[in-house]
Write a structure and sequence with these properties.
Elements (H helix, E strand, L loop, with lengths): L14 E5 L4 H11 L3 E6 L14 E3 L5 E5 H4 L5 E5 L5 H12 L3 E4 L13 H7 L4 E6 L14 H8 L23 H24 L4 E5 H7 L2 H10 L16 E6 L2 E6 L3 H11 L3 H4 L6 H6 L1 H12 L4 H8 L6 E3 L3 H6 L1 H5 L3 E5 L8 E5 L23 H7 L4 H9 L4
Parallel strand pairs: 1-2, 1-6, 2-5, 6-7, 7-8
Antiparallel strand pairs: 3-4, 9-10, 10-11, 12-13
Helix pairs in contact: 1-6, 5-7, 6-7
Length: 415
């Protein structure tokens, strides 16, 4: 577990106004925050981000009791400062406009046109601050016939075709379309959005001008179909569900063992030959049905049952030990608890803990480290996911709003 980092981070000095909630936008801004940007998360007074209550499970206090903050919220709001402002009030809108003038980046995920009525749309704010990089995240984008629809990850997984290639074939027990086990299109949209923002920053270095970024979950969902989309677009044949096997590689799937299952990911002929030699069936590598990957894919209905009859004769650990020094990709199929016990996961420091220090009985929050490994400017670990409104006074004081003014705003329900 890691202690808070003293390093300023690669994006130190940049200020991000985060008007997003749920996952795609917050995932983007957490990436920026981990890289050192000062991310100010704006939340609704009293309720905050929707995901604060998306539970169970909830965080535990020091006595082991459930709190009112979900573990979902903590996954994508590290390193941010939480400020509560009601944008439906004139005073709240004025505050947010002032904050936008002092910001480098704004991220929002309201429905198309949703911020126009508050004067927080990109045209209004970029007129006030031409250097502002304004990133919008929506389900379907800002144009087209579905632009005004609300978009959630599950809808996009269904609409994009992702669910049509995930799961077992219809004819098998348990067959049918499945969503991926995490909100994949939300997460990828957050990653793509952060990339677009960094590109816009580079343009601003050259021109002095910000720009509007239009990120759509649908666009990302279609893009990350990757080789499956390419297969359809270039053959006219829509891929179908095939469980854990691969449409273009064999053997590349799970196999039953004497005590469970393992994963074999054989990607070339050399790996297949080394597997066959180690497993005591060197003749398979020279079998004319299996001599190349294309032939193995063609004859997988014969090859895979032969292999599984063999893999069932040893334990998962025995297979891993046998193949580890043969450069044959082989591993266990872990649950998440087992994954965090993996020695490589531990060596990479992927489990991190940050002190909460918010006066709500939560002493620390544990999460997953940033995967971005910059040698000179590594990601920063400064703040645990915040309590609702934890930094309101701190941020507004920086904005020049004194204690008396803040008290009046609170009485008026603005904060």
């Amino acid at each position: 577990m890691a202690a808070p980092s003293p390093n300023p981070g690669a994006l130190a000095g940049l200020k991000v106004l985060d008007l997003s909630r749920v996952l795609a936008g917050p995932w983007c801004t957490q990436i920026l925050a981990d890289l050192g940007a000062d991310v100010i998360k704006i939340e609704r007074p009293g309720t905050g981000d929707d995901t604060r209550t998306w539970g169970p499970p909830f965080l535990k206090d020091r006595d082991g009791n459930d709190t009112d903050q979900s573990t979902y919220f903590t996954s994508c709001n590290r390193n941010k400062r939480s400020v509560t402002i009601d944008m439906a009030t004139p005073e709240g809108r004025a505050l947010l406009q002032r904050m936008a003038v002092e910001s480098d980046i704004l991220v929002e995920n309201f429905k198309t046109g949703g911020l126009d009525q508050y004067g927080l749309d990109h045209r209004t704010l970029r007129a006030l601050n031409p250097r502002l990089i304004y990133c919008s995240v929506t389900g379907f984008g800002h144009d087209g016939p579905h632009a005004t629809r609300a978009g959630y990850d599950l809808m996009i997984q269904a609409t994009s075709g992702m669910m049509s290639i995930t799961g077992k074939p219809d004819e098998l027990p348990g067959g049918g379309p499945l969503r991926v086990g995490v909100a994949l299109t939300d997460l990828f949209t957050g990653v793509y959005a952060s990339t677009a923002i960094l590109a816009a920053l580079e343009v601003r270095h050259r021109t002095g001008e910000g720009q509007h970024i239009d990120m759509a979950l649908l666009d990302v969902g279609m893009t990350i179909l990757a080789n499956q989309a390419s297969a359809f677009l270039n053959t006219g044949v829509a891929p179908t569900r095939q469980g854990n096997s691969h449409p273009s590689l064999a053997p590349y799937q799970d196999f039953r063992t004497a005590d469970g299952s393992m994963l074999l990911a054989i990607g070339n002929n050399g790996q297949f030959a080394r597997f066959c030699e180690a497993a005591g069936h060197a003749e398979w590598a020279s079998d004319p049905r299996y001599a190349t990957n294309t032939l193995r894919v063609k004859h997988r209905e014969v090859l895979i049952p032969q292999m599984e009859a063999l893999t069932r004769t040893r334990s998962t650990a025995d297979w891993i030990a046998l193949l580890e020094d043969k450069a044959v990709p082989c591993g266990p199929i872990n649950d998440i608890a087992q994954a965090f016990e993996d020695e490589q996961v531990k060596a990479r420091g992927l489990k991190v803990s940050l002190p909460r220090q918010a006066g709500d009985g939560i002493d620390q929050i544990v999460g997953v480290a940033s995967p971005l490994r910059l040698a000179a400017t590594p990601p920063v670990l400064m703040r645990a996911p915040p309590r609702l409104g934890q930094h309101t006074d701190e941020v507004l004081e920086e904005l020049g709003i004194d204690a008396g003014q803040r008290a009046a705003l609170r009485r008026g329900g603005v904060l």
